[in-house]
Write a structure and sequence with these properties.
mainly alpha; 179 residues
C-alpha cells in the first residue's frame, strides 16, 4: 500500500498539469495568455485583501503569544489520551483552521523532532493536506468580495476541518499504524 501511495504521489501533479495543458490546447484556448490575464486579475484582488490579511495576522499572533494555544492544548490532552490520539498533533489541529503559516511551523517542528517517516510526521503532513485555513479564507476572501454574513460558511468550514482531521488520524493509523 505504501509503495502504491508513493508511486501515485510522484505522478499526480505532473499528470494534472499535463491534462490541463492538453485540454486547453484541444479546446483551442491560449493557455499562456489566459494564465497571464488571470495573474493580472489576481494582483488587484491581492491589493483588496491586504487589510483583512493584516487583521488576521495580528489576531493569530495575539492567540499564540498570549498562551491561549498552550492552555487549550493542556486542557484537551486527557481527552486525546482516551481517544488514543497523540497530543503532539493537537497544536496543529487547533492552528490549521486559523493560519496556514502557523500550522506549517508546527508541522515543520513535528517533522524535525520526530522525522518525516514517523507516525507523527506522516500524520502532520496528511493533516496539512486534508484541512484548510477556514478562518483565513472567510476573513480574506469573503471580506474581499464584501460578504458580511458568513456564519453558515464558518460552521460548514469548521465541520469540514474536523472531518479532515478525523480522516487524517484514521487513515494514517490504518495505513501506517501508530507508533
Amino acid at each position: 500500500m505504501y509503495e502504491l501511495i508513493s508511486y501515485a504521489s510522484v505522478w499526480a501533479i505532473p499528470l494534472i498539469l499535463a491534462t490541463i495543458l492538453v485540454y486547453g490546447m484541444f479546446k483551442k484556448v491560449p493557455v499562456y495568455e489566459s494564465f497571464v490575464e488571470g495573474a493580472k486579475d489576481g494582483f488587484g484582488t491581492a491589493i483588496k485583501i491586504i487589510p483583512h490579511l493584516v487583521g488576521m495576522l495580528v489576531a493569530i499572533s495575539i492567540f499564540r503569544q498570549s498562551g491561549a494555544l498552550e492552555m487549550i492544548t493542556s486542557f484537551l490532552r486527557p481527552v486525546l489520551e482516551v481517544l488514543h490520539v497523540p497530543g503532539e498533533i493537537l497544536p496543529l489541529a487547533l492552528l490549521r483552521p486559523i493560519t496556514g503559516a502557523g500550522a506549517l511551523a508546527v508541522t515543520t517542528d513535528i517533522i524535525g523532532t520526530h522525522g518525516p517517516d514517523s507516525f507523527l510526521g506522516r500524520l502532520a503532513s496528511t493533516m496539512q493536506g486534508s484541512t484548510d485555513t477556514t478562518l483565513y479564507v472567510l476573513t480574506v476572501y469573503f471580506g474581499a468580495v464584501g460578504i458580511r454574513n458568513s456564519l453558515y460558511a464558518l460552521k460548514v468550514g469548521l465541520l469540514a476541518d474536523l472531518a479532515g482531521i478525523a480522516a487524517a488520524i484514521f487513515i494514517v493509523t490504518m495505513v501506517f499504524g501508530q507508533s
